[in-house]
Specification:
Elements: E1 4-6, E2 12-14, H1 15-18, E3 22-27, H2 35-42, E4 48-51, E5 60-64, E6 67-71, E7 84-87, E8 92-93, H3 95-107, E9 116-119, E10 123-124, H4 127-140, H5 152-160, H6 174-198, H7 209-223, E11 227-229, H8 231-240, E12 245-248, H9 273-279, E13 286-294, E14 297-299, H10 312-320, E15 333-335, E16 337-338, H11 339-349, E17 353-357, E18 367-376, E19 379-381, E20 392-400, H12 417-430, E21 434-438, E22 446-448
Parallel strand pairs: 3-12, 3-13, 4-7, 4-12, 7-9, 8-10, 9-11, 13-17, 16-18, 17-21
Antiparallel strand pairs: 1-2, 5-6, 14-15, 18-19, 18-20, 21-22
Helix pairs in contact: 3-7, 4-5, 4-6
Bound molecules: guanosine-5'-diphosphate, 6-O-phosphoryl inosine monophosphate and magnesium ion.
Residues 31-32, 58-60, 326 line the site of magnesium ion.
Length: 449
Amino acid sequence: MKNEIIVPDGKEVNRAQAAKKADILLGLQWGDEGKGKMVDFLTPKYDVVARFQGGPNAGHTLEFDGQKYVLRSIPSGIFQGDKLNLIGNGVVLDPILFRKEAEELAQAGHNLQERLLISKKAHLILPTHRLLDQANEAAKGKAKIGTTGKGIGPTYTDKVSRNGLRIGDILDGFAEKYVQARNRHIEMINSLNASAIAKGGSPVALDGLEALEKEWMQSIDFLRQFRFIDSEHFVNKCLTNNKSILCEGAQGSLLDVDFGSYPFVTSSNTICAGACTGLGLAPSRIGEVYGIFKAYCTRVGSGPFPTELFDEMGKKMRDIGHEYGAVTGRERRCGWIDLVALRYTIMLNGVTQLIMMKSDVLDTFPTIKACTAYRVNGELTRDFPFSIDKGVEPVYEELPGWQTDLTHCSKQDELPEAFINYVNFLERELATPIKIISVGPDREATIWR
Ligand code: GDP
Ligand code: IMO
Ligand code: MG
C-alpha cells in the first residue's frame, strides 16, 4: 500500500495524517457519571461505538421511549439504528453475562448479530476468575476493595502475567488452555481460602463450580455466532476511510489503576490512554475527549472520598439521584463536587469538552458547595496529592442554589440564572467548556450549550 495519498484539495499527504480521529467519552469521577446515556445521545454523530476497557463491572444505563436498559459489556451505541458496535481488545468479557445481556436485548427486539463485533484479543473472564475475585476480597478482610465481584482483577492479572485466555483462543485448542487455567485458579483459591479462614472470614465454596462451568461452556458456544475480528485493523481502516468512531469509557478516571485512589481502584486504565491500548489507536488518532461528571460526586465500594457527606444532605442526594449501583444494587456514597479531583482528571485525559450530568438532583438544595482546594496537613493545595487517604480536608466555596425544577428545561435560555452562575463558576475553575447539560435520565433530557 502506498503511504502517500491525494486528498480532495489535490495535496499529497501521508495516509496516517489524512485519517479521521476517534473521539472518546469517559468518566472523570468514580464511575456512574451517566456515560451510557451520553454515548447513546451522541451515537447518531458516529459510525462506530467502541468499548476499550473494563467489563461487566460496568453498568451503563440509558432510557428512551419509556424504556430503561442497563448495559454491561455491550457498547451503548447499540440502540441507535444500524451503527456498528465493537467490544475492543482492552475489554474483559464474561460469556455468561454477555449471553444474558444479548438475549435480553434480542427479546426486546434489538438484534445484535449484524451490528456487534468482538476483538479476538479481548480476554475471557472464567468462572474461576469470579471465584478468585471473591477469594481475594475475603483474604483481604477489612482491607477489601469492595469490588463488583465479577472477576475483573483476576482476569486482568492473568492478562498481564501472560496466562490469560482470549476470544481468539476459542477458535484453537481451547479445551486444553481452559483446563490449565482453571486448575491453576483452584490452587490459588485454596490458598486464599486458608488466609481468609485465618482472618476469621469465610472461604469461597468450590462446589458450585461444575454447574457454572457447564453454563460457561454453553455461553462460549453462544458467543460463536458473533464476528470475532482483528479490531485494531478494523478501527484504523475505519478512520482511514473517513468513518467516525466514538470510544466509550467504563468506570471513571479516579478508578484508574495508575492514577486513581490506589489500591481502591479497578484493574484497567480508565483514562484516555486506555483507548489507545484498548483499541490499537495511536495517540495522534485521538480527537475530541468528552469528560463527563455529575453536578455532585458519588463513589461505590471502599476507598477515600474527601468530599463525602455523612449527613442528611448526602442522604438527600442518594434519594433524589437514586444513587444505587446499576450492577450490584449497593448504595452509592454521595458528596459535593470535587474540583481538585476534576482538574486532575481533566489534565490526565486532555479533556476538550465537559458534559455535566444529574444537575436536576440539586434542584431543591438551598446552597451548593464545591471543593476548590484541599488543605493537606495544614497546607492549601489545588493539586491532587499522592494520597487522599488521610489528612486531606476539603476547602469549599458555597454558591446559591437555583431552587427550580430543571427537568422542565429543554433549551439553554430556559435555565435559571443561579444555575447558569454555577455552570460559569465550574467552567472558570476547570478552565474547560461545559458543552452539554443533562437534566434527567431520558435521552431527551439533554441541553446543548
Ligand atoms: P454510567 O455507568 O456512567 O453509564 O452511569 P450509570 O448508568 O451507572 O448511573 C447513572 C444513573 O443516573 C442512571 O440511573 C441514569 O439513568 C441516571 N441519569 C443519567 N443522567 C441523569 C440526569 O441528568 N438526571 C438524573 N436525575 N438521572 C440521570
Ligand atoms: P461504570 O462503568 C462505579 C468500582 C467497584 C470497586 C472498584 C473495583 O458503571 O461507571 P472491580 O469490580 O472493577 O474490580 O471493582 O471499582 N467500580 C465501579 N464503580 N462504576 C463502575 O462502572 C465501576 N466499576 C468498578 O465498586 O470499588
Ligand atoms: Mg454505572
